[in-house]
Write a structure and sequence with these properties.
By secondary structure, the protein is an alpha+beta fold. The protein has ten helices and eight strands. A hairpin with a 4-residue loop joins strand 6 and strand 7. The chain is flat.
Length: 394
C-alpha cells in the first residue's frame, strides 16, 4: 500500500506544482493590472506589490489546480485500467483515493491560513505601498488625465509644468457638519508628509468658495488631507475582512456590548420623551439618525460573524474539489482528463460559487445565518459521496 500511496502522491505533486505556478502568476498579473487601472499606480511599484498579492493569488489558485491535478492523475490511472487491475487483486479504489483526500485536507488548512494572511497582511501591505506613493500616483493621473479623484476630494488642472499644477480646481466633499468647499487657484503643488500621514496641497492666488457661506480670496493657502482619505486604497482599513481570525471573538463581543448600550440609551431617551409628552422628538431627524446608527452597528456585527465562516468554507473548497474530482475521473475511465476536469469545474462554477456569493451577501445583511456560506461545500460533499458510491460499487 505504501508504494501505491507514494506513486499517487508523486504523480499528483508533479501536476499540481506546475499548474499552481502557472495559475498563480496569472492571478497575480490580473490583480496587479486591476490595481494599475483602478489606482493608477506607477509601473515601478509592481515589484513592491507582488509579495502582498501572493497569498490572495494562492487562495484562488490552489483549489482549482488541485482539482486539475486530481482529475489528471485519476483519469490517466483509470484510462490505463490501473484501477481495474487493483480491483482484480482485491484492492479497493478507495486505497488510492485516500492519499489525495489527505492532501486536500492539509491544503484546505493551508488555504484557510493563506486566506487569513491575504486580508490582514496582504491587503494591508498593498494599501500601505499605495498610500506611500499617493503623491506620485496623483501627479501621474494629473499628467495623463488632468484629473485626480479620491474619496475626499477631486482635482482638475489645465496642465502641469514639472511639479506645478496650473489653474487647479479642488473640490472637497462635505463631511459631517463641514460643508463642501471649492478652491480655484493659479498654481498649486502636492506634497505627501508620511510622518504626519498628510497630503499637503499648497495653492497660490485664488479663491475658496464654501457652500452656503460665501467666497474668500487668498494669496497662499495650504490644504491638509489625511493620507487615508487621499486614495481609494485607504477606505477599507476598518472592514472586518481586514482582521485576522484571532481577533473576531473579542471584536464580536465588543460589538454586541456596544449595540446593547446603544439600545439602552435609545430606550432611556424614548421613555423620557414619552414621560415629558414630547412625542414629536420620536420622529425627529436626530431620532432617525440614532436608529440609522443602530442599523449600521448591527450590520457591522453581521459582517464580523460572517467572516470566520467565509474564510473556513473558502479554504475547505480544496477538500470538496478533491472529493468530487477523484471519483469523477475514476468513474469515467477516460484518459482525457480535461473532460473530467470541466465536468467537475463547470457545475462548481455555475452552482458552488453563486451559492457562496449568495450566502455572503445574505449573511452581511443579516437575512440568513452566516453558516449558510457552507451550503456550496455541503452540496459538493453530497455529489462526491454519490460519485464515490458508484465507483466502489462498480
Amino acid at each position: 500500500m505504501g508504494i501505491l500511496n507514494r506513486y499517487v502522491l508523486a504523480e499528483l505533486t508533479k501536476v499540481f506544482a506546475f499548474a499552481l505556478g502557472v495559475l498563480t502568476v496569472t492571478v497575480i498579473m490580473i490583480l496587479v493590472v486591476k490595481e494599475l487601472i483602478h489606482q493608477g499606480i506607477p509601473i515601478k511599484l509592481i515589484g513592491w506589490l507582488v509579495p502582498y498579492f501572493l497569498p490572495e493569488a494562492l487562495c484562488v489558485a490552489i483549489p482549482v489546480t488541485l482539482l486539475l491535478a486530481t482529475t489528471s492523475v485519476y483519469s490517466r490511472m483509470s484510462g490505463y485500467n490501473e484501477i481495474v487491475a487493483l480491483k482484480s487483486v482485491g484492492i479497493s479504489p478507495l486505497v488510492v483515493i485516500v492519499p489525495t483526500l489527505i492532501v486536500g485536507f492539509l491544503l484546505s488548512l493551508l488555504t484557510v491560513w493563506l486566506n487569513d494572511v491575504a486580508y490582514w497582511w496582504g491587503r494591508a501591505g498593498a494599501r500601505r505601498v499605495i498610500l506611500e506613493a499617493v503623491e506620485e500616483i496623483a501627479y501621474g493621473m494629473l499628467r495623463t488625465e488632468r484629473r485626480y479623484t479620491s474619496p475626499r476630494f477631486v482635482i482638475n488642472v489645465k496642465r502641469l509644468e514639472g511639479r506645478t499644477l496650473v489653474h487647479p480646481t479642488v473640490s472637497l466633499q462635505a463631511q459631517g457638519q463641514t460643508p463642501a468647499i471649492t478652491i480655484e487657484a493659479e498654481q498649486a503643488r502636492l506634497e505627501a508628509d508620511h510622518r504626519a500621514n498628510l497630503l499637503r496641497l499648497t495653492l497660490v492666488n485664488g479663491t475658496i468658495e464654501i457652500e452656503g457661506r460665501g467666497r474668500v480670496l487668498f494669496a497662499e493657502h495650504e490644504q491638509e488631507i489625511p493620507l487615508s482619505e487621499a486614495s481609494w486604497a485607504g477606505q477599507a482599513g476598518t472592514n472586518p475582512a481586514w482582521m485576522p481570525l484571532r481577533r473576531f471573538a473579542s471584536e464580536i463581543a465588543k460589538q454586541q456590548e456596544a449595540i446593547e448600550q446603544h439600545k439602552e440609551r435609545l430606550a432611556a431617551t424614548a421613555a423620557l420623551d414619552l414621560l415629558a409628552g414630547e412625542f414629536d422628538r420620536l420622529t425627529s431627524p436626530e431620532w432617525h439618525h440614532r436608529l440609522a446608527q443602530l442599523a449600521l452597528m448591527q450590520q457591522h456585527l453581521c459582517r464580523l460573524r460572517l467572516e470566520p465562516y467565509r474564510r473556513w468554507s473558502a479554504g475547505f473548497s480544496c477538500l470538496c474539489f478533491v472529493w468530487v474530482g477523484a471519483p469523477m475521473a475514476v468513474w469515467r475511465r477516460n484518459r482525457d482528463f480535461l473532460t473530467s476536469f470541466f465536468l467537475c469545474f463547470l457545475p462548481i462554477l455555475i452552482v458552488y460559487y453563486p451559492l457562496l456569493a449568495y450566502g455572503i451577501d445574505g449573511a452581511k445583511n443579516g437575512t440568513i445565518p452566516p453558516i449558510s456560506v457552507w451550503s456550496g461545500n455541503l452540496l459538493l460533499a453530497v455529489w462526491g459521496a454519490w460519485l464515490l458510491r458508484k465507483v466502489l460499487r462498480h
